[in-house]
Amino acid sequence: MNHNNMISTSTLYIVATPIGNLRDISLRALDILAAVDMVAAEDTRMTARLLAHYSIARKMMALHQHNERAMAEKVVNFLAQGKSIALVTDAGTPGISDPGSVLVSLVRDQGYKVTPIPGANAAICALSASGITMPHFLFYGFLPVNSGPRKRELEALKSLPHTLVFYEAPHRILDCVADLVEVLGMHRQLIIARELTKVFETFHRCVLHDAPAWLQADANRQKGEFVLLVSGAEVRTEEKVSDQARRTLALLLEDLPLKQAVKLATEITGESKNMLYALALALKGETNSRA
């Protein structure tokens, strides 16, 4: 342990910082930032304002998406000298749609300790206040910048029955929502969460078809950082699976692993793979409960 007994030597701390409101930072995060030997920051100017707000003075180094691999080597060298380093990004949790994962991977490969200091995350913040009742979600983060690749990614996601969580920048929000409508359809529910924890925090719920008009009705609605929550694909109930397909699947499950049984049942019956997969899970659950 170092001289103040608050942090360990040769340790990288992954410190979550506020996504807007500067008071959304943990006491533990402040303790760590005040005690480490160095702070690796995505933007040292922004981090300097955060540290100054809490009267913390620490040496800083810039570590961002353009220099992460090179700077990761320097961080490892510091750790080899027994130094402690805190990694922060502009806002939120490092490594989650922000720089950090390359550094963490290298540090772990070199055998040094990595300790997370949890805190703010825009996706979880938006989900917690969304009112969405679906139990599962898929966090995607930022979709591709260009429309073609973006649509291809959405095509791959469109059949998933989970709430889809995207981040988007203000200058791409209209194009992104237009692609959501085109690929995912007009009727899915969308929650637009913007400027979370800030003065103009906004939550708006609508169907995808109505989202472009809402955004264009007021230019201010296109400002800020966005979290988009899109309802998942509708899952058909197992009653819509034919009796023949149900019997076929049940027989296959007696001798084959679930995925293989579903694949063969799909080929034999021609019914929806997603429906048969959901039914297989239900049948396996029934079997386990009787065991």
How does this structure look, described?
This protein has 291 residues and is α/β, with parallel strands linked by helices. 41% of the residues lie in helices and 17% in strands. The protein contains 11 helices and 10 strands. Strands 3-2-4-1-5 form a 5-stranded parallel sheet, with helices on both faces. Strands 6-7-10-8-9 form a 5-stranded mixed sheet, with helices on one face. Helix 6 packs across helix 7 and helix 9 packs antiparallel against helix 10. The protein is globular and about 70 Å long. The protein starts with 10 loop residues before the first strand and ends with a helix.
Strand order of the largest sheet: 3-2-4-1-5
What average pLDDT do the residues reach?
93
**Element-by-element helix/strand order:** EHEHEHEHEHEHEHEEHEHHH
Low-confidence stretches: none
